[in-house]
Amino acid sequence: MTTAFVLHRADGAPCSTVFRRQAFGGNDPFAQYREIAWEGPGSMVAGRIDFVGEVDVPSFPHIETIVVVEGELTLEAAGMAPLVLGPQEGAVIGGGTALRVSAGSRARFVFCAADCQSPTRRGLFPLRADADFKPSSSLPAELLLGAAPQCRSDNVFTEEGAEYRAGTWDSTPYHRIVRPHPVNEFMQLLAGSVRFAAPDGSVLSLGTGDALFVPRGTSMGWESSDHVAKFYVIQTVRASIERD
């Protein structure tokens, strides 16, 4: 059965997720630091990285969304002011971007990365908790156990070649039935808490600061009783990729 993967617990509680030390591709700038929790169709990976030091990357080899959970990380790209990220702050690195990554002391961040053969969005794209939210679609009535929520989103990065989107989303409370998740999704909770129900009746609870990756096809419900906000990455996986 496909399951969700907890990537980080803000309260320091251990994760049951098994991480493996592994590079993502042959030119991975974080090869010696990367810990992968999940790798699947569509050339996507998710996990965590403990990094210290400095690395110069002439051309970033893939798309990567990072969210710092401990410490401080600095990203420097040509033509942009240095982007200094602390806990609960993140950014998307576009494929092909030339940049320097540095941390004077240990920084931990969670990531969701994807291969892209022909990148079109180079640069750094900050993720913001105080996003420029716009109303977004709610859920179909047949999926809801109660009133429809009011949802908003701010999509700051789209790479069509990888079917990869990233941004910030928030919602009023709602309760959804258990159903197969339609996309690969990374999420870092910025506010609120969520209870994810599994088909066997078990419940996975996440709170502010926690990070989760949900592979496409994972059967799970959603129940929130307060305002929830999150950074997200979504990747649509075509059926042809899943069969390969």
Please write out the topology.
Elements: E1 5-8, E2 20-21, E3 34-40, E4 44-57, E5 63-70, E6 73-77, E7 83-85, E8 89-93, E9 99-114, E10 124-127, E11 134-136, E12 151-159, E13 164-171, E14 175-180, E15 184-191, E16 194-197, E17 203-206, E18 211-214, E19 219-223, E20 228-235, H1 239-243
Antiparallel strand pairs: 1-18, 2-3, 3-4, 4-9, 5-8, 5-9, 6-7, 6-9, 8-10, 11-12, 12-13, 13-20, 14-19, 15-18, 15-20, 16-17
Rounded to the nearest angstrom, the distance between the terminal CA atoms is 19 Å
* SSE order, one letter for each helix or strand: EEEEEEEEEEEEEEEEEEEEH
**Largest sheet geometry:** 9 strands, antiparallel
CATH C-level class of the largest domain is Mainly Beta
| Shape, principal axes of CA atoms | globular
Estimate percent helicity: under 10%
Mean residue pLDDT: 95
CATH topology of the largest domain: Jelly Rolls
Which stretches are low in confidence, meaning pLDDT under 50 for 5 or more residues running?
A: 240-244
How many domains? The number is 2
Strands, count: 20
Approximate strand percentage: over 45%
Label the CATH architecture of the largest domain. Sandwich
Given the helix and strand composition, which structural class is it? mainly beta
The tally of helices reads 1
Protein name: Cupin domain-containing protein
InterPro entries: RmlC-like_jellyroll, RmlC_Cupin_sf, UGlyAH_Cupin_dom
Organism: Paraburkholderia kururiensis
Pfam families: Cupin_3 (PF05899)
Structure description:
By secondary structure, the chain is an all-beta fold. It folds into two domains: 17-127, Jelly Rolls (Sandwich), CATH 2.60.120.10; 134-243, Jelly Rolls (Sandwich). It is 2% helix and 52% strand. The protein has one helix and 20 strands. It has one helix at 239-243; strands at residues 5-8, 20-21, 34-40, 44-57, 63-70, 73-77, 83-85, 89-93, 99-114, 124-127, 134-136, 151-159, 164-171, 175-180, 184-191, 194-197, 203-206, 211-214, 219-223, 228-235. The strands form four sheets. Strands 2, 3, 4, 5, 6, 7, 8, 9 and 10 form a nine-stranded antiparallel beta sheet that branches. The chain has a seven-stranded antiparallel beta sheet with strand order 1-18-15-20-13-12-11, with no helix packed on it. It is globular and about 50 Å long. The protein starts with a strand and ends with a helix. The model is unreliable at 240-244 (pLDDT under 50). InterPro entries: RmlC-like_jellyroll, RmlC_Cupin_sf, UGlyAH_Cupin_dom. This is Cupin domain-containing protein. Residues 163-232 form the (S)-ureidoglycine aminohydrolase cupin domain.
